[in-house]
Amino acid sequence: MIVFPNAKINIGLNVIAKRADGYHNLETIFYPVKIYDALEAITAPVMHFASSGINIPGGDEKNLCIKAYELVSRDHPLPRVNIHLHKHIPIGAGLGGGSADAAFFLKQLNTLSDLNLSDDDLENYARQLGADCAFFIRNKPVYATQKGDVFKEAELDLTKYYLVVAMPDVHVSTADAYSGVVAQDGTADLRDSIKLPVAEWKHEIKNDFERSVFKKFPVIEDLKNELYKAGALYASMSGSGAAVFGIFEVQPNLSHLEKSCRIFYKV
Question: What are the structural domains of the chain?
């Protein structure tokens, strides 16, 4: 059984307050994009995990797919599974690739084992694996609050635009990004902001991680500026970085960036 976990971008990311449990309350719009990993899972006599493509840091036992299997196995009998993950979504990018892999694997387990878990059930498992993991169960635009795992519908359709994601040769640690962010409340509701014309978003929608991340990695800020120079209506870092996306009316010419960045066109 092969599935293709996709990435996401954040349209705005407001860090509201530090929580007692060490996490932060935030608000953001999660929007799925067409950058994919490939994940195969088949029942087998022996449990095994393998990966190809982009090198995944840490041992296999730390992979979120393995953690997802262990989590579900506490409540349900599961067959042993051979897992092969081909990694294409950049790591340390703010695109949610690891979370997507785990969420899609939960859905695979649900099918392979005939567990008959609802989307709500799967989301509850996913929330235990990562703050944005639950988003990928339903995998449609949402307004996310609290740790990024409480959702309300977001009316957003960017299919008429040309969406580009650019990944510089930089890895941003989520922990480092959060250590430099300053929580602040009182921002406009993103559900209202996304109703504005996209060209006005740059005046109304921000990513609170950009201030501290740009100081440490000015190449990311330079990349955002390059997307605006190329004609982006709106450009932003996604999540805690390092990927930057641009929303264009037509296909831009970004050939001058392709030597220093991975460019994903029309995602």
Answer: 2-153 (3.30.230.10), 162-264 (3.30.70.890)
